[in-house]
Amino acid sequence: MKRFVLQTLMVAFFFTATLYRPSYAEGVDYSVEGLHGIDVSKLCVSSGLRGGSADVVVVFENTSNEMVFLDGISSDASSSGELFFKDLAGSAVTKSGFGVAREEVLNLSSSHIGARLTGLKEDLVPGDHPLVYLNFRNGTLETAAHVLPKGQCR
Question: Rg of the chain's alpha carbons, rounded to an integer?
Answer without folding.
Answer: 22
